[in-house]
Every structure is written in C-alpha cells, then in structure tokens.
Amino acid sequence: MAEHCTHTFRKIINTHVWKHKPHLRTYRFRCRSCGHRWNVYFDKVANKEVQLSLRELPVNRRRMTPKEVKMILEDWRFDDTLAEALGISRQSVHSIRTGRTYKEMFPEIPRRRLKQRQQEGNGCVTCKHWHGDYCDLGIPEGGEAGFFRECSCFSE
C-alpha cells in the first residue's frame, strides 16, 4: 500500500438512487491499490459532484435535532405515522420513545418501557419448545433449574 494513496485507480462498487431526490446518486468507490472506500454524491441535473449537509444524508445516517426528539417523545401518533411525517424509519421513532437512542436528551420526559423477557416462573416448562419432559430443539440442559435464562430460544 502506498503511504499517500491518490485513489486514482478507483472502482465503483455500489450505486444508490435516492427515493426522495431522484436527481441525486450515491456512488461507493474502492481504491484498487489500497482498498480505501468512500462515497461520492453526484447531482444528475447539475451534472457535477456535490457536497451534502448532514440533514440531506440518507435517513440511516441522519441526526435528529433536539426539537425533533422532543416532538417524538410528546407526540401521541403511532410510530409508523409519525415516522412517515418526519421522513425517518419507524424503528428510529421506536428507539427514541423507548430510550435506546437520544436518552441523554430530555431525561425528564418519560420513555416507554420495553417488555422484558420473563426471567422468573416455571422456566422451560412454560416455553413453547417444551413438550413433556424434553426440549423440541434437542437441548440436553433443557429443564434444568434456571437454564431458560441462558437459552437463546426460550419463549413464553
């Protein structure tokens, strides 16, 4: 690998047409000599490369403003309805409302509680994979006291 790669031997490894801005294209490049990867945003109307602000980046790379986070926490609409109105994914709205993301913003506003997997009770006996005295998945430890806490297939 060259110490100062100029990335002149680049190869397009992926392209993306934006849903809400069809005139924009994202080209993902890889340098053939060093393997470095980067994105280039190209405007088909202007016929040139453009620099995009963080607000214009695709949804999965966008940062929410404090005003938007507060609105999500206080809004009464369903996750999918609100997500469509804001132009973000339903999972992003859900993550904010449950405190998985942006938990440092507005700690005084209560978050939804996530359903916790039940860790107490009859264990394997109440699992849908448990039949009689054995586990349908063939797990030999099934049925032992407390094993269901470690079982990745345990379900109520």
Helix proportion range = 10-25%
Number of distinct beta strands: 6
Reported for the largest beta sheet, the result is: 4 strands, antiparallel
**How many domain regions?**
3
Total helices: the number is: 3
What would you note in describing this structure?
The protein has 156 residues and is an alpha+beta fold. It folds into three domains: 10-54; 64-114; 116-156, no CATH class. 17% of the residues lie in helices and 19% in strands. The strands form two sheets. A four-stranded antiparallel sheet has the order 1-2-3-4, with no helix packed on it. A two-stranded antiparallel ribbon has the order 5-6. Helix 2 (79-86) crosses helix 3 (90-98). The longest helix has 9 residues, at 66-74. It starts with 9 loop residues before the first strand and ends in a 21-residue tail after the last strand.
Q: Which key features would you list for this structure?
A:
alpha+beta, two-stranded antiparallel ribbon, 19% strand, flat
Offer a quick outline of the entry:
With 156 residues, this protein is of the alpha+beta class. Helices cover 17% and strands 19% of the residues.
SSE layout:
Blueprint: E1 10-17, E2 24-31, E3 37-43, E4 48-50, H1 66-74, H2 79-86, H3 90-98, E5 130-131, E6 134-135
Antiparallel strand pairs: 1-2, 2-3, 3-4, 5-6
